[in-house]
Design a protein that fits this description.
heterodimer; A: 302 residues; mainly beta; 2 domains; twelve-stranded antiparallel barrel; 2 helices; 42% strand; B: mainly beta; eight-stranded antiparallel barrel; 51% strand
Chain lengths: 302, 179
């Protein structure tokens, strides 16, 4: 008896379902079919930063395949203090450091960079590899990019060629929170083959450092950047006259060009230089205006 | 008892077949904009579409991120500046074909689809002309229409390198299989 009641119930329910289906199924099944076919959009990598360089830090973003990024990074002289002020047009008459370089996308994830900077006449070759991209669906919460730099100072008096070289390795870890805030931390290792150049003997030539940076989106094409670096070096202390590099900047993107205007205490552009030796101090007026111009050329032709 | 349940299940299942649904998950959707410096072209080959031959209902959906541009920077700007694909990941069309098409007969049918076109999160009622071709039981569809950036609140920044036209030409082609 129970069986038949169960059966009857089942028939009633299924008939009811069928009746319902005929009225609503057509649109519903078309909808669900469309949704099922509309795959996962969330796998595309998140664009965390608008450019490959901020103020001090580089970013996890790479130059895409067959694109060439031309960079001019300029730091003026001290804004105030003994070496600045109105007579020197607040540092604009002076050059602290100029970096001219190129970044080329071998693949979307692998870049080769070359450049040259005024301080120490340091010429550098870099390899940059994007190991991991942040995804919208959270399958990868962060982006990780590796950077290796070899620098050589071709001019000046050194006893061996080896003494002219410095190396740097970085692991850049970045994440975009929402659509407005991007953060990056960059554990860094610096090694100078000889005693750190332009510093008294006893300055550690090998040490770890940490860069941290934030970009806050102001408009679609403009962002505010804070960039900070700290070398973990027992020699590079405030007592010995060293100061952690700290920069603030405004980044403007006009499609193809990225222009950053900034203020930093660091004189140097290259990581090796500003981590080795930043002795300029905000409180003494030793901060400067600087800018970065980046221009992207695309060699993909279709 | 067991058999009865199976029969019931089959009966339920039968209700699902014969609804006249046709699906396509590799619809090609391309866009074209003439621009002062260089023309802008992009295409997606992963558009999804469902066509209900019985009712004439026609739906399309395409991911903004799936559009491939010849230049990577253009693609980035398309996603971040114009379409804001993080906020509005998909463009859709939900409509109905006005004419009744006999999908059992081979032929080429000019049709008009009327419905809601949603691009950049803004929905517009549109009537889009197109062509349906039935050949050996295979249904395919093509359409060409213009989308005005202003209609969908797509801002064209004044200070950009890859400037685009105020109207974008869209081409759609889809080949369906019975579902």
């Amino acid at each position: 008896m129970k069986k038949y009641i169960f059966l009857l119930a089942l028939i009633t329910i299924s008939t009811g379902l069928l009746a319902q289906k005929t009225t609503t199924q057509k649109t519903n099944s078309a909808d669900s079919l469309l949704n099922a076919m509309s795959g996962d959009d969330a796998n595309a990598p998140v664009v965390i930063f608008k450019s490959s360089r901020l103020i001090l830090s580089q970013t996890t973003e790479t130059v895409k395949k067959h694109n060439l990024n031309f960079l001019v990074i300029h730091r003026f002289g001290d804004f105030a203090g003994k070496q600045g002020g109105g007579q020197l047009y607040y540092g604009l008459d002076d050059i602290a450091d100029v970096y001219i370089g190129f970044e080329y996308g071998v693949t979307n994830n692998l870049n080769i960079d070359i450049g040259r900077t005024t301080i120490g006449g340091l010429a550098d070759l870099e390899l940059k590899y994007a190991l991991l991209h942040q995804t919208r669906n959270g399958s990868s919460p962060v982006a990780i990019t590796l950077l290796g730099e070899a620098g050589v100072r071709p001019y000046g008096k050194y006893s061996t060629f080896g003494d002219r070289t410095s190396y740097m390795a970085q692991v850049m870890i970045a994440r975009q929170f929402g659509s407005a805030l991007s953060l990056q931390v960059t554990p860094t290792y610096v090694t100078n083959s000889a005693d750190a150049p332009f510093l008294p003997t006893g300055a550690e030539s090998k040490y770890f450092a940490l860069l941290t940076t934030a970009r806050i989106k102001l408009t679609k094409h403009m962002g505010f950047i804070v960039d900070y670096g700290h070398p973990f070096s027992s020699f590079r202390t405030t007592a010995n006259g060293f100061h952690d590099p700290l920069g603030f900047g405004l980044e403007m993107e006009t499609g193809g060009h990225v222009f950053t205007i900034n203020v930093t205490n660091a004189r140097a552009v290259d990581e090796i230089n500003y981590l080795n030796n930043t002795q300029s101090n905000y409180s003494k007026g030793q901060y400067r205006i600087g800018f970065t111009i980046s221009r992207m050329f695309d060699f993909n032709h279709k | 008892m067991k058999y009865l349940s199976i029969i019931l299940l089959v009966w339920l299942g039968m209700g699902r077949t014969g609804t006249g649904l046709y699906a396509c998950k590799n619809a090609k959707i391309s866009l074209y904009s003439s621009a002062p410096i260089e023309d802008i072209k992009a295409a997606s080959t992963t558009g999804a579409s469902v066509f209900n031959a019985a009712t004439g209902e026609l739906d399309f959906s395409v991911a903004t991120q799936s559009f491939q541009f010849p230049k990577s920077l253009m693609q980035e700007h398309f996603n971040s500046d114009y379409m804001e694909s993080d906020k509005f990941p998909r463009s859709t069309f939900k409509g109905k074909i006005e004419e009744h098409i006999d999908v059992t007969k081979d032929g080429t049918y000019p049709v008009k689809a009327t419905g809601e076109l949603t691009v950049h999160g803004v929905t517009q009622m549109r009537t889009i002309p197109g062509t349906i071709t039935v050949k050996n039981g295979e249904i395919s569809m093509t359409a060409e229409f213009m989308v005005k950036c202003a209609d969908h609140h797509i801002e064209i920044p004044r200070l950009v390198f890859h400037n685009i036209a105020e109207s974008i030409k869209i081409n759609v082609s889809a080949t369906y299989t019975a579902h």
